[in-house]
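quick q for whoever's on today - can somebody do inverse folding on this one?? i tried earlier but teh output was garbage lol. tokens:
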């Protein structure tokens, strides 16, 4: 089967390679001339694909995805299908679908999980769109997903795939935070002498074993005290969206919310909120405060 892939970064490039290994013909395009692209423009990509065309978009969410879909709307024809496999917000999918519908161009949103390990292990796929458009792309989904009966779901109409991936990533936030807090508590205790060993022991037979735990073990094998990295943690949006949707639907999500806010805390060298807490404890209870070392105070504006 022929497919065009737009965006050949860590995920897109590996997905293209997995598809080629499965016998599919991939025409790749990336705006970077240093990428392993097959063509140097969207126009050339569309020309290389036989109709009905299938084009997978793997570019950053928001403006870049919207602009790419808009350009494809002017190049593709009735019966073609666009798949957004990035981390777009599900509400954007409705806009993209409506943008393409007047020309008879189908649209699918595909939440993709697997990271840099997907080339080897396969990608979990959560897809939204019509059954007709899903059927057109099914051979591609079958090649990308892991072996076995699981790893792919037609979650519902347009938007359902990215909504499912949003919730998936929210859960991921909570799981990572729980493992991280457990790691810190083990490290803080003088009783435990082999923290990496304890965490590795959890990967077999325990109720908290998971692939994320395996990856924490791998990270600790490479750097037992995590001394080579800082605690600054970014977020790409899905956790925020999950919390917003939980509020919209009146669904309590305290764990995911706490994990999201923990990431915000990681970006503060000296939390103003914690300064206020320290000051209040000093005021009402006379509790000691830790003064800023001489010479470290901020210079007056």
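ok took a stab at it. sequence:
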């Amino acid at each position: 089967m022929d497919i065009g892939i737009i965006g050949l970064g860590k995920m897109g490039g590996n997905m293209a390679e997995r598809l080629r290994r499965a016998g599919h013909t991939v025409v790749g395009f990336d705006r970077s001339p240093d990428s392993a692209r097959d063509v140097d423009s969207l126009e050339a990509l569309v020309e290389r694909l036989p109709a009905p065309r299938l084009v997978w978009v793997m570019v950053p969410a928001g403006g870049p995805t919207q602009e790419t879909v808009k350009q494809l709307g002017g190049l593709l024809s009735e019966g073609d299908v666009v798949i957004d496999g990035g981390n777009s917000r599900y509400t954007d999918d409705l806009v993209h679908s409506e943008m393409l519908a007047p020309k008879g161009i189908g649209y699918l949103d595909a939440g993709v999980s697997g990271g840099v390990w997907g080339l080897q292990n396969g990608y979990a796929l959560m897809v939204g769109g019509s059954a007709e458009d899903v059927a057109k792309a099914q051979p591609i989904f079958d090649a990308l997903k892991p072996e076995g009966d699981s790893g792919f779901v037609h979650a519902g109409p347009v938007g359902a795939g990215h909504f499912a991936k949003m919730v998936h990533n929210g859960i991921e936030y909570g799981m990572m935070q729980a493992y991280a807090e457990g790691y810190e508590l083990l490290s803080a205790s003088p009783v435990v002498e082999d923290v990496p060993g304890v965490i590795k022991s959890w990967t077999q037979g325990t109720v908290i074993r998971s692939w994320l735990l395996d990856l924490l073990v791998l990270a600790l094998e490479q750097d037992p005290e995590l001394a080579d990295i800082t605690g600054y943690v970014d977020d790409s949006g899905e956790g925020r969206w999950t919390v917003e949707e939980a509020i919209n639907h009146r669904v309590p999500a305290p764990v995911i919310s706490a994990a999201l806010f923990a990431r915000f805390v990681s970006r503060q060298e000296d939390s103003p909120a914690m300064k206020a807490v320290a000051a209040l404890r000093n005021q009402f209870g006379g509790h000691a405060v830790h003064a800023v070392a001489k010479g470290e105070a901020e210079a007056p504006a």
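fwiw The radius of gyration is 23 Å. also Strands lie at 2-6, 25-29, 54-57, 81-84, 106-113, 124-128, 152-156. so keep that in mind when u check it
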